[in-house]
Amino acid sequence: MADAVAKSTGGAGALPTPPVTSRKSVTGTRLWVAVLFLLPALVLLGALVVYPIGYSVWRSLFDADGSGFVGLGNYVDVFTDDSTLTAVRNTAIWVAVAPAVVTALGLIFAVLTERIRWGTAFKLIVFMPMAISMLAAGIIFRLVYEQDPEQGVANAVVTSVHDVFADESVYPKARPNAQVSDLKASGGGSFTSTGTVRAGTPALLPLVGIAPNRLPGDPQDAKPATGDGITGTVWLDFKLGGGGEKGAVDAGEKALKGVKVEAVKDGRVVASTTSRADGTFSLPKEADGARLRLPGSNFAAPYDGIEWLGPTLVTPSIMGAYVWMWAGFAMVLIAAGLAGVDRNLLEAARVDGANEWQVFRRVTVPLLAPVLVVVLVTLMINVMKIFDLVYIIAPQPSQDEATVLALELYLVSFGGGNNEGLGSALGVVLLLLVLPVMWVNIRRLRKERRR
Fold first, then answer.
1. Closest CA relative to residue 303, chosen from 439, 448, 149
2. Where are the domains of the chain?
3. What percent of the chain has pLDDT over 70?
4. Predicted confidence (pLDDT) per residue in 70-103, tens digit
5. Burial 148-172 (b: 16+ CB within 10 A, else e)
6. Distances from the Cα of 141 to the Cα of 106, 151, 316, 331, angstroms
7. For the segment 299-320, what is each residue's pLDDT rounded down to a tens digit?
């Protein structure tokens, strides 16, 4: 009787069978409700991400106008054409250099700003370029890198420093008056007289090639040299309005002050001087019988600075603009990670006898490794898509040397190439290059969740 009752009731320890209900998600929401709410996002994801990727892969298998199937021909062109190979090389340089430099600077700024009282203001200044668009930053640095020192800030600084340590030429466009002067070119930009100078006979060194109203400073009128010694005059043998005798010091003609004059005997300089404000000069008696030489330093073209946007330096120069923009981003993220570092570990290292460099290298950097990886990977993905800065900063003659994959994709497809097949192939190659970096980032995020 007891067994029968137990069987009929399922036993004293039996659990009641739950009623059959519709399937629910982990959060307790019915599956169809979750799908319904996710549907708009899935539609947008498919329309804006999945479809463009699929269409780009399909379009890359056809020719320029899409009428002929070429298979992998566009991909062959990508890795055989000189311009696309240059783009691939420059993109690799960007990925290898720019993220590392930005991350290193961000780390340095983040650590140093903790030691100064005005660290917050410094962080604000460094982060401020992030508020500027790539287009605006490109325009700014295009002006910074202008070749003319009067317009480009970079060359204005470079030329200022150069002129401190090097003598500036006095009259860069001046040259002897070939009609009346016996000064002849003697190599290195210098001019040497064919005759010799004698005491009591003033030497006449007329120059032309400069407009009187373009002379530096406030030049005086030239005066003929006098005296029994070895003398002479250097002047501009031309005056506004014309007139006067060629090869003679006429009234109204301007003196050339500061011109260096050398006395040369047997190829050796025996004496030298510079012309006075009135253009006259005098030499010691050792110069008697010597030839006069005006060295090339008098006529050398002024130093115009560095060709920042030339074929050699255009890529590093654009990277400088990128570092200026993104160093603040790296600094803020690393500073946030640094704020979470246990200070007791740092103090313990100092107590154990470690100096500040050892604490930074052996303790701070390892503790910040996860944050540094996040910053580095983010910047690597970012520089693979760099376009605006290169397009705006690089001038047309140097753009071929500075091109990257994203810029080459635009130029091939829409910038005059009109080859959408090759452009689609470049887009697919760029996607394939980004995928490994994204995979590393996803693996890192999963490891962080497991912790």
1. 149
2. 73-153+308-450, 175-298
3. 92
4. 888 888 888 888 888 899 899 999 999 999 999 9
5. ebeebebbbebbeebeeeeeebbbe
6. 21, 12, 12, 22
7. 877 778 899 999 899 999 999 9
The strand pair at 291-294 and 260-265 is best described as antiparallel
Paired tokens of 449? 């969740």
Amino acid at 420: E
Asked if residue 154 lies in contact with residue 179, where contact means CB atoms within 8 angstroms, the answer is: no
Q: Both tokens of residue 327?
A: 């160093």
Q: State the fold for domain 73-153+308-450.
A: MetI-like fold (1.10.3720)
Which two tokens mark 41? 């996002």
SS3 state of residue 133: coil
Q: List, in order, residues 6 or more apart from 98 with CB less than 8 Å away.
A: 319, 322, 323, 379, 383
Calculate the CA dihedral of residues 340, 344, 350, 355 and round it to 10 degrees.
-10
Distance from C-alpha of 145 to C-alpha of 175, rounded to nearest angstrom: 32
- The residues pairing with 192 across neighbouring beta strands, listed in sequence order, are 184, 293
pTM, to two decimals: 0.73
